[in-house]
């Protein structure tokens, strides 16, 4: 059977090349998703400052969620300082190093109160001198720090800043500067410092600088000679778990202490790497599932067209006694040959596509620039298996009808298409359309929150499958609508109308991928525009203060708010802290824990600085163990005012908080609002992001403005902004989240674009014999081209109408989930541009192959078709 299949493929290259291209591209898409998933599970970076440690002890940076993805905590999970003593008593431990890390900014001392800022390409962290043993760092010049106002810099930092031993430097934490004398330089460890710069102080000064002196960033362990890192790590974990059982410490499963060895130490040292992996795993899994469905759908459509174009040949086989099983076996063998070859060849471009996606995510700021992908062969193997199985299933479905009907009926249907669709097909198609509408619009009203958004987005594929099943009916309807326009061209118009009506199934194979591409582009654009427009409106109208104070350093020191309140003319100052927290809830009978943007602020007198559009409850009650939620977060967790919200703060600390308010401006300012002190105490440097300043009923005043300018002159990095400038910065944060989804779906839309061209070209070139027969009975080339031009409008109009129709319900559902309003934000020019592009693409994909098919002599084309 494989010999016959191979002979068929060689003699019908046109159709099988199209299927081959669809399989290659589909395999590449699935491989790319698999590479991203494996990178989220396995990728990492080598440690730098901890490179010399045998074992590192730190907080566990992920939360265990049963039967779901384990999310990463956005801030560092610290460990109690007392843990170091427990670790030091473990057999095999030679030395324990208590590491405290605080992010800083460097200013040269130029005689001014602010100093001259030094722009660095990487963050600067301050540490105690004892942590140099973890590198290890080597003192190459000067001496170690011996007093609170002495520091040692890494040599690379000193070179880039133009500093040397004996100079003075201003190292600030937030907006609080300290002047230090540089007493020495150290060389970085063997791996170098590519992701950070380092400044070292006395251990006592590092403790004083730390926002939590009772906590450690991490504990470094230097093992005895010959100690195995994994064995020593196991002993340390056993010792700490025994201590936990005895004392009850660290009972919170989301924030307990673990050990790190080898390259895993890099996860502890660089939190952005672990966070990036946590971002990639759910994204690639979700995107991969959608991509697999679209790939199988497109491959099925292409193979269906291949089988449809061979219905005369397959009917002849049935007429000469080929059994249904033999027909299925023949098509299955052909599909296996094409599928295996295409899937294997498509795996290699998939690795390249994954690299392009990584670069796009890095450019959008959601992945570090140096994040490396894990090129494991497993994604390629999985892509080959899934693509081949999908193609085999598609081939079986495509051959199902022609294989089971009687030989005489097969010969009859090979000459003319069956006019009516089967009742089962119509029933399933209409049912899927109804299901898609329910998932798009009804579900967001019944199951609000993030589940509604995901359901509305997934409904697009359901609507597309339903439309594909009844697409011949839709083609016939479009033909009837366009027939009056075709009458202007008597011969070509008649032929176009007759062909479109009689061959609706064939044309529907060209319509489906074009409609899918249109719908995906319109729906993604609508979702992006809705998020951006809503966030812009909320951020622009929500800041009602007269001034906003920000900083280009690591943040604003918490004591700055008091200085601003003391200025003449200032009535209200609202400090704002930004972070992320995990909201825990039950999602369809399964525990879920998802990150939400959070802000910490004082709810009192908030009406004069910030308008969150409070819909229930009161922000005045935001004190103690309380929380305010956006309506979307409240709907996601199914809580209301007076209920309890289950939350993990950024550093893993678990809280049960009473909901005191529900507000509307979540996209503009964050979905979770906590008391200022609570959130600030659980961020890395415990600093404010901004101060919202109100001058009272009189509005902005020269007196307040002068006071703020004078304060800025004496405070490093301080900047005074207008509310409009601050709102523009806020809006950029939400655009990043939207672009992430667009990038993830960009590869899929490119695949659909290739499938559109592939299918249209195949459908057109497969009609070479028909064109030749028309020419033999007197139709001119011009009339044939005109006929195909008119038919192309049937395809394009049907595809655009279907695409727009199935894009609108998911767009409405996403708008309901994001804004609570059923009207998505639509940019008419953008929609017109997409429709124009689809129209041009469809026309070129039909007209160019038509011209090519008409170049050969009619009699040769007729016999070539035989």
Automatic annotation (TrEMBL):
Residues 20-238, 514-710 form the MacB-like periplasmic core domain. Keywords: Cell membrane, Membrane, Transmembrane, Transmembrane helix. It comes from the Bacteria. It is found in: Cell membrane. InterPro entries: ABC3_permease_C, MacB_PCD, Membrane_comp_ABC_pdt. Residues 287-407, 744-856 form the ABC3 transporter permease C-terminal domain. The chain crosses the membrane at residues 16-42, 287-308, 335-357, 377-400, 428-447, 453-478, 507-528, 742-766, 787-808, 828-848. It holds the Pfam family MacB_PCD. The keyword Cell membrane applies. It is a multi-pass membrane protein. Belongs to the ABC-4 integral membrane protein family. This is FtsX-like permease family protein. It comes from Streptomyces tubbatahanensis. The lineage of its organism: Bacteria, Bacillati, Actinomycetota, Actinomycetes, Kitasatosporales.
């Amino acid at each position: 059977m494989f010999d016959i299949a191979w002979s068929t493929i060689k003699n019908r290259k046109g159709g099988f090349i199209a299927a081959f291209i669809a399989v290659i591209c589909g395999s590449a898409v699935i491989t790319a998703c698999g590479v991203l998933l494996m990178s989220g599970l396995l990728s990492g970076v080598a440690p730098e400052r901890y490179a010399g440690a045998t074992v590192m002890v730190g907080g566990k940076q992920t939360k265990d969620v049963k039967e779901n993805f384990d999310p990463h905590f956005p801030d560092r999970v610290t460990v109690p300082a007392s843990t170091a003593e427990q670790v030091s008593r473990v057999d095999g431990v030679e030395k324990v190093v208590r590491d405290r890390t605080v992010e800083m900014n460097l200013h040269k001392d130029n005689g001014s109160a602010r100093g001259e800022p030094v722009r660095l390409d990487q963050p600067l962290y301050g540490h105690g001198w004892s942590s140099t043993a973890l590198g290890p760092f080597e003192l190459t010049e000067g001496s170690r720090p011996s007093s609170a106002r002495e520091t040692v810099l890494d040599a690379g930092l000193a070179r880039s800043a133009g500093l040397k031993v004996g100079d003075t430097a201003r190292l600030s934490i937030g907006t609080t500067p300290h002047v230090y004398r540089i007493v020495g330089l150290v060389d970085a460890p063997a791996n170098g410092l590519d992701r950070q710069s380092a400044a070292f102080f006395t251990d006592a000064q590092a403790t004083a600088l730390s926002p939590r002196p009772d906590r450690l960033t991490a504990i470094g362990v230097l093992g005895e000679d010959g100690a195995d890192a994994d064995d020593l790590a196991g002993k340390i974990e056993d010792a700490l778990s025994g201590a936990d059982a005895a004392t009850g410490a660290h009972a919170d499963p989301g924030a307990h202490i673990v050990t790190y060895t080898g390259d895993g130490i890099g996860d502890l040292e660089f939190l952005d790497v672990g966070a990036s992996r946590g971002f990639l795993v759910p994204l690639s899994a979700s995107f991969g599932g959608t991509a697999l469905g679209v790939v199988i759908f497109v491959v099925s459509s292409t193979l269906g067209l291949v089988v449809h174009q061979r219905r005369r040949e397959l009917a002849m086989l049935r007429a000469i006694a080929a059994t249904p099983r033999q027909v299925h076996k023949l098509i299955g063998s052909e599909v296996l040959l094409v599928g295996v070859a295409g899937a294997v060849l498509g795996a290699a471009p998939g690795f390249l596509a994954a690299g392009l996606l990584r670069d796009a995510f890095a450019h959008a700021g959601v992945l570090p620039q140096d994040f490396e992908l894990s090129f494991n062969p497993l994604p390629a193997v999985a892509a080959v298996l899934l693509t081949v199985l999908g193609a085999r299933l598609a081939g079986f479905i495509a051959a199902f009808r022609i294989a089971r009907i009687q030989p005489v009926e097969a010969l009859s249907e090979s000459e003319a298409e069956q006019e009516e669709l089967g009742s089962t097909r119509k029933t399933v198609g209409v049912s899927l359309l109804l299901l898609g509408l329910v998932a798009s619009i009804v579900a967001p009203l019944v199951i609000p929150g993030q589940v509604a958004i995901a359901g509305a987005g997934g409904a697009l594929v359901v609507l597309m499958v339903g439309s594909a099943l009844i697409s011949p009916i839709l083609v016939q309807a479009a033909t009837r609508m366009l027939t009056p326009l075709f009458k202007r061209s008597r011969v070509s118009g008649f032929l176009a109308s007759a062909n479109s009506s009689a061959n609706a199934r064939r044309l529907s194979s060209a319509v489906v991928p074009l409609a899918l591409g249109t719908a995906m582009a319109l729906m993604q654009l609508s979702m992006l525009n809705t998020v951006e427009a809503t966030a812009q409106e909320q951020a622009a109208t929500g800041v009602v203060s007269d001034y906003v104070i920000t900083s280009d350093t690591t943040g604003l020191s918490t004591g700055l708010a008091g200085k601003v309140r003391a200025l003449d003319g200032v009535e209200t100052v609202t400090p704002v802290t930004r972070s992320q927290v995990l909201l825990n809830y039950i999602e369809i009978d399964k525990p879920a824990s998802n990150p939400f943007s959070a802000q910490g602020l004082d709810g009192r007198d908030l009406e004069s600085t910030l308008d969150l559009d409070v819909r229930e409850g009161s922000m005045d009650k935001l004190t103690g163990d309380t929380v305010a939620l956006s309506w979307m977060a409240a709907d996601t967790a199914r809580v209301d005012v007076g209920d309890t919200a289950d939350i993990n703060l950024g550093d893993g600390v678990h809280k049960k908080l009473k909901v005191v308010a529900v507000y509307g401006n979540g996209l503009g300012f964050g979905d979770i609002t906590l008391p200022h002190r609570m959130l600030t105490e659980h961020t890395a440097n415990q600093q404010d992001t901004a101060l919202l300043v109100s001058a009272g009923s009189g509005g902005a005043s020269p007196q307040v403005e002068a006071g703020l300018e004078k304060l800025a002159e004496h405070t490093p990095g301080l900047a005074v902004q207008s509310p409009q400038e601050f709102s523009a910065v806020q809006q950029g944060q939400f655009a990043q989240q939207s672009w992430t989804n667009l990038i993830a779906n960009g590869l899929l839309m490119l695949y659909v674009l290739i499938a559109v061209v592939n299918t249209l070209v195949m459908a057109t070139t497969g009609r070479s014999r028909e064109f030749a027969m028309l020419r033999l009975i007197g139709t001119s080339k011009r009339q044939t081209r005109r006929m195909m031009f008119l038919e192309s409008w049937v395809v394009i109009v049907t595809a655009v109408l279907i695409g727009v129709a199935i894009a609108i319900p998911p767009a409405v559902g996403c708008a309901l989930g994001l804004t609570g309003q059923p009207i998505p934000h639509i940019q008419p020019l953008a929609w017109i541009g997409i429709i124009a592009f689809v129209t041009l693409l469809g026309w070129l994909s039909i007209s160019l192959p038509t011209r090519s098919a008409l170049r050969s002599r009619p009699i040769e084309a007729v016999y070539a078709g035989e």
